[in-house]
Design a protein that fits this description.
α2 runs antiparallel to α11. By secondary structure, the protein is α/β, with parallel strands linked by helices. It has 14 helices and eleven strands.
């Protein structure tokens, strides 16, 4: 449903329902007066409708509607219907988009935010370590820093998209040396490009929407993605080798534009925060099963899944990335590492 977002002149705020109806009547469908929300927010997602992260976004939207008694409606636009990853961050900062589910990898390149440190390779030991950080006081401080950094974005909660692994088209990757010379797709991010270079591969920056055709045509030899994304986007059909190197386990973040946030009442902000906490807990309970199901279905599709053993060589290859990308955040990195114990 097309509509006017909070910042775009049709201020869809509590107490101005009549203004909304008159200004946006041409784009709102007919409904019973009691069913018309006072606030409509647009939420963007790059993944398809059946992806675990998209399902989490819809769960969040449902909880917001429930907690607000229908006053607030969040429309989830999946599969990149409103643009690409880089465009979404620009739109958030300008107030042209209300909400997006971003990833720490991309956020690392936008501003000097602490959340970008969470995209460092091999930073988290396992899922337990990941959630110990994201659920704790340190995680709350990192989320708060998003707004404090001047990014014009507010982080509501962390989500787990799963560890990111390598997919390849023509041959399996069993050792880091197998990646030497391969062209591997990267999002537009210096840190991720350096992670790919550290393996001996060549990063090729392109939009996520173009990845399937690039794998199919041979424009790239591979890419990297969490297993749920690999399966739901059907990348396995053109890149049937999947190496579980888990080079980074960067969290996702439900983000709201600071301009939108500033237009909300304290009550409505609290509704969004409560719904975000519920969405986080939902995500935590379903991600493990979603990954197991993805691996099971990939096995049925005869995908070659390579489980890794000793990752020392991979980890050692990434050492320079900490030196070149940590900036002033070494203390934060040490705090995160210490929480593995």
């Amino acid at each position: 449903m097309k509509h006017c977002s909070i910042q775009k002149g049709c201020a869809i705020l509590a107490g101005v329902t009549i203004l909304v109806l008159s200004a946006c009547s041409s784009v709102l469908p007919e409904r019973e007066a009691s069913d018309i929300p006072e606030i409509i927010l647009r939420y963007a997602e790059v993944n398809p409708s059946d992806h675990i992260i998209t399902l989490t976004g819809r769960f969040f939207a449902d909880k917001v509607k429930e907690l607000s008694d229908g006053r607030i409606e969040i429309e989830v636009y999946d599969a990149g219907k409103l643009g690409n990853d880089a465009q979404y961050y620009d739109q958030l900062q300008m107030g042209a988009l209300d909400m997006y589910r971003g990833n720490a990898i991309a956020l690392e390149s936008i501003a000097d935010m602490e959340v970008g440190i969470m995209a460092m390779p091999y930073l988290f030991r396992d899922s337990e370590h990941f959630w110990k950080v994201c659920d704790g006081e340190l995680g709350k401080e990192i989320l708060a820093n998003m707004q404090e950094s001047g990014s014009n974005m507010v982080g509501l909660c962390f989500l787990d998209e799963g560890a990111r692994n390598i997919m390849t088209v023509n041959k399996p990757v069993r050792n880091i040396s197998d990646l030497k010379g391969l062209k591997i797709r990267s999002m537009e991010d210096d840190l991720l490009c350096d992670v790919i270079r550290a393996t001996g591969a060549e990063p090729v920056v392109m939009d996520y929407a173009d990845l399937y055709s690039a794998l199919q045509s041979g424009e790239v030899d591979g890419a990297e993605n969490p297993v749920c994304s690999y399966y739901s986007n059907q990348f396995y059909k053109v890149a049937p080798y999947y190496t579980m190197d888990a080079h980074t386990h960067s969290p996702s973040v439900i983000i709201i534009s600071e301009l939108t946030w500033n237009h909300l009442s304290e009550e409505d902000r609290q509704i969004l925060m409560t719904a975000a906490d519920l969405a986080k807990e939902y995500n935590k309970t379903v991600i493990e099963n979603a990954e197991k199901e993805a691996y099971a279905k990939l096995a049925e599709e005869n995908v070659v899944i390579i489980e890794m053993g000793d990752m020392t060589e991979w980890q050692e290859a990434m050492e320079f990335i900490y030196q070149s990308h940590a900036g002033d955040h070494y203390e934060l990195i040490e705090k995160i590492k210490e929480m593995a114990d």
